[in-house]
Design goal:
By secondary structure, this protein is mostly helical. The chain is 67% helix and 3% strand.
């Protein structure tokens, strides 16, 4: 079979567009769930109702307000999970594609990227490195990866602040645009 120049780039771009379309549909569904949960919570607050129930010790045992706010939180967290899943999916797709293009089983990101560049393939070094670091933080959740990512892109963390402790993943904030870059 004869390799048509640029066909791999075209195939890769088409596959990325399919992943992006799946992301758009997934995030839109979760945004709709979030808006519905917010609307239900807002309507309940506006109604002035308060059906909180307490046991004899004064412990809250039921709260429609609390349940509705919980649904809002769950819908918001679902959006984060979708963003994280698609970041990992996109990076994995690049990695497996690069191994296919190069015929290499190279596991080191920098070496694989270098091998792809030697073939003359265009590689967005900064964007791909950032994607790799976000992916690694999602997978490994360690301080070393978190520090590298924070130094490169502090805006990806909650309020642009350096996290403390061993686990940095919780402080990572990804927008829809972050996923699509």
């Amino acid at each position: 079979m004869v390799e048509i120049p640029g066909i791999r780039a075209f195939q890769f771009e088409m596959d990325i567009e399919r992943i992006e379309a799946a992301f758009d549909a997934s995030i839109a569904a979760m945004e709709q769930s979030y808006r519905a949960a917010e609307d239900a919570s807002d309507r309940y607050e506006a109604s002035g109702e308060d059906d909180d129930e307490y046991d004899e010790d004064g412990t809250l045992v039921h709260s429609t307000r609390g349940n509705l706010r919980w649904q809002v939180l769950q819908a918001s967290q679902a959006q984060s999970v979708i963003r994280e899943a698609f970041v990992t999916s996109i990076f994995h797709f690049w990695e497996t594609s690069a191994r296919y293009w190069t015929g290499s089983d190279e596991r080191d990101f920098r070496m694989l990227r270098r091998t792809v560049r030697k073939l003359g393939y265009a590689v967005d070094g900064d964007g791909l490195t950032l994607l790799n670091e976000v992916n690694n933080l999602l997978k490994h959740d360690n301080v070393e990866t978190g520090e590298r990512l924070f130094d490169r892109a502090p805006q990806r963390f909650w309020m642009g602040k350096r996290p403390t402790g061993k686990h940095w993943r919780r402080a990572l904030r990804l927008s829809d645009d972050d996923v699509k870059r």
